Amino acid sequence: MQKLLTALIGPAIAALVLAAQPGAAEAQSRIKDIVSIEGVRSNQLVGYGLVVGLNGTGDSVRNSPFTRQSLEGMMERQGVNIRGANLNTKNVAAVMVTAELPPFATPGSRLDVSVSAMGDAKSLLGGTLLVTALQGADGEIYAVSQGSVQTGAVSASGGSGSSITRGVPTAGRIASGGVVERETGFDLGSMPVVRLNLRNPDFTTAQRIAAAINQIYPQSAFAENGTVVAIRAPQNFGMAGFLSRVENLPVQIDSPAKVIIDEVNGVIVMGEAVRISTVAVAQGNLTVSVQETPLVSQPEPFSRGGQTV
After folding, report:
1. Can you list the positions of beta strands (E) in the chain?
2. Which percentage of the chain shows pLDDT scores above 70?
3. Could you say which of 22, 258, 267, 304 is the most buried, measured as most Cβ atoms within 10 Å of its Cβ?
4. pLDDT number for residue 84
5. Closest Cα partner for 122 from 63, 47, 65, 72?
6. What is the tens place of the pLDDT at every residue in 174-186?
7. pLDDT, tens digit, for every residue of 149-168?
8. Where are the alpha helices (DSSP H) in the chain?
9. Rounded CA gap, 130 and 147, in Å?
10. In this predicted structure, what is the pLDDT of residue 20?
11. CA gap 228, 35 in Å, rounded
């Protein structure tokens, strides 16, 4: 307990001294760093596919009926009928494929995809994902994926039957393994009004954002609430060009008074809005006290150089 107090009192003294200094610097940030644009977001995609070429580490066809059905359907599309055959392969694994479609992605753009095993496959290392359609939440296909799976896991086994694995061999990624086939249809240029959403809602900050925009582009912004600031592009401005100018405007952020104490490292962080009342902190022979003593200086009548406080 004594060590903890010693570790905390030192930073506390420094924090008190800094808080007592007048004229603290006011932090300013660009608008783009504190807001997000409504509608400009990524979309999640998901698909189901098969990974082939595994070195005996795939699904057991008998224990994974969905893998067998998928394999039979794929072979039929290739003109091979294997229904009713005794399949005993362990080189195939059924997987779920996920990806994130960035905003304004156009056909032909590349995506990174993640691959995760569904059955009892032991590893996807060295496997190849066959062509898999990726759908959005609306059921439409927006991308297709294919390629070699990289797991980043390491496994080794010995002759005595012992084995060791580092990482997760049943999940991997394919860098640039997806190709966008369809746009989301979001048209920013046709929107007369765009809403900026604050990542940390605050009425004061929202009003300051609107004021900073209106100072340069009058009557172009309005704070609807503590989260949303609506903006309208002036004449002779496209919405994309107007946003590029707006997002670089500096704004002073209004943060609530907050004190964060890290008792492990003995660090105290205080916001500029924190005010210290009458207090005393002592450590060893050092004592720091914060108190308020009102003093009034009233010069004599007809004096020269005096100041009234």
Report:
1. 28-30, 35-37, 43-52, 93-101, 110-117, 128-135, 141-148, 154-157, 163-166, 171-180, 193-198, 221-223, 228-232, 250-252, 259-262, 267-270, 279-283, 286-290
2. 84
3. 267
4. 74
5. 63
6. 999 999 999 988 8
7. 998 877 666 666 677 777 88
8. 2-20, 65-77, 203-216, 239-246
9. 7
10. 45
11. 9
Segment 10-19 mean pLDDT: 48
Mean pLDDT of 207-216: 94
Task: Give the bridge partners for 276, in sequence order.
Answer: none
Which structure tokens are listed for 189?
């240029």
| Residue with more model confidence, 225 or 1 | 225
| Residue whose token pair is 């010995």 | 158
Bridge-partner residues for 47, per DSSP? 97
For 186, the token pair is 């979001």
Phi-psi region of 219 (alpha: psi -120 to 50; beta: other; left: phi over 0): left
Structure tokens belonging to residue 4: 């903890």
Q: What pLDDT is stored for residue 273 in this prediction?
A: 79
Of 254, 253, 248, 210, nearest in space to 232 by CA: 210
Whether residue 26 has pLDDT greater than 60? no
Residue 49: other Cβ atoms inside 10 A: 23
Segments making up each domain of the chain, as ranges: 2-23+257-290, 28-40+188-252, 43-180
Q: Are 37 and 230 in contact (CB under 8 A)?
A: no
